């Protein structure tokens, strides 16, 4: 194994349904943060997530283990929680992990895609629940580029917080 000297922090990206462009924007944002802010400080944000919705059903235990190993969780939402609401369960697991001081989870962030024509009462109620939750940072976007810009800013903030922490190895970092 090659030793590279970087402290690594895993970032789980979650987005059900047809939000592939948004997931690409998330990965690109983390890549930009790594290039401009993290890597010069010997920090690496590592993107983790599902390739498609079917993986959440067929590999649920592995997905949950991955979430438990992450320092950050990014949930992108528009109008669907995916098969059997499993993406919602992943999100709730991330919140539980954040509350467990023995796990590395530091923050869960929700990005809500603009849905001005949405009329489904269940979807509107859940969006409102997220918006009113004091424990979750909720941001809004219309286009994937907007999401990317906002996530770059958040990621840079994560890097700054990691740098400021007295002992990053006790806050979920792994050095390999």
Describe this structure in words.
The chain has 176 residues and is an alpha/beta fold. It has 6 helices and 6 strands, in the order E-H-E-H-H-E-H-E-H-E-H-E. It has helices spanning 20-38, 54-58, 60-68, 86-99, 121-132, 144-164; strands at 7-14, 43-49, 72-77, 107-113, 137-141, 174-175. The longest helix is centred in the last third of the chain and has 21 residues, at 144-164. The mean pLDDT is 86.
**Global mean pLDDT:** 86
Please provide the count of β strands: 6
Distance between the termini: 8 Å
Radius of gyration, rounded?
Answer: 16 Å
- Succession of helices and strands: EHEHHEHEHEHE
Strand content: 15-25%
- What is the helix content? 40-55%
Shape: globular
SSE layout and pairing:
Blueprint: E1 7-14, H1 20-38, E2 43-49, H2 54-58, H3 60-68, E3 72-77, H4 86-99, E4 107-113, H5 121-132, E5 137-141, H6 144-164, E6 174-175
Parallel strand pairs: 1-2, 1-3, 3-4, 4-5
Antiparallel strand pairs: 1-6
